[in-house]
Amino acid sequence: MVKEKPNSTRIYDKDGYRRRAACICVRSEAEAEVLLVTSSRRPELWIVPGGGVEPDEESSLTATREVLEEAGVIGKLGRCLGIFENSEHMHRTEVYVMVVTQELDEWEDSKTIGRKRQWFSIEEALTQLALHKPTQRHYLQQLRNSKNNSSPTANCIHVVTDDPAEDELLERDADETGASNEEENRTTSPSPPEEEENTTPTATTEEAENPPADKDDDDDPATDAAS
């Protein structure tokens, strides 16, 4: 299901890129855990909350509004991580850090589309985002890089997220993490009895490692606020 927002209007910058904003929500100042929400299109997968900037709206306000709508959290907005450009889908997302101070029991998207939220370690979040939103892994990389940098919000850096070399590196990291988890499972899982034959059809390695591709929620040209 794609979330449709009534009366939403797309906002573009001078270069023709759609303007978006998002928040990396952290549990504490230590920034060891981040909050992800389920995708509206594929609810078994996790994404960073965010959406389109509305007319006459500052990107920082967009970020706080979107996390309230999508994740049901309120917090203290901190530094800007950067403006992340995706030239393939023609949007630029201004990403902020928010320290969460309140988690609502119910929120807009939980009631309308059944969206869920969950805390992940940085490593777990990187693995989850690799499944559906690999470009959002750049947000977490920048979170790590900027943790000890007290630069003000006004100094948001410009990050191009569709650089082939960097994306290849991120994908390789995800593959290595998956291989490590698979090896650990083989080591700790008991072997089945030799005399029993498993006749249940299973997914091939290629199918397991490469789930069917799907358009990113916020990249759908027909929906401005889908996320």
Q: How would you describe what is shown here?
A:
- Its cofactor is Mg(2+).
- By secondary structure, the chain is α+β, with helices and mostly antiparallel strands.
- It has a domain at 18-164: Nucleoside Triphosphate Pyrophosphohydrolase (Alpha-Beta Complex).
- It contains six helices and eight strands.
- The chain has helices at residues 59-71, 108-112, 122-132, 137-146, 164-188, 205-209; strands at 18-26, 33-38, 46-47, 50-52, 73-86, 91-103, 117-121, 158-160.
- Strands 1, 2, 3, 4, 5, 6, 7 and 8 form an eight-stranded mixed β-sheet that branches.
- The longest helix is centred in the last third of the chain and has 25 residues, at 164-188.
- The radius of gyration is 19 Å and the shape is globular.
- It starts with 17 loop residues before the first strand and ends in an 18-residue tail after the last helix.
- Mean pLDDT is 78; it is low at 164-182, 185-189, 191-216 and 219-227.
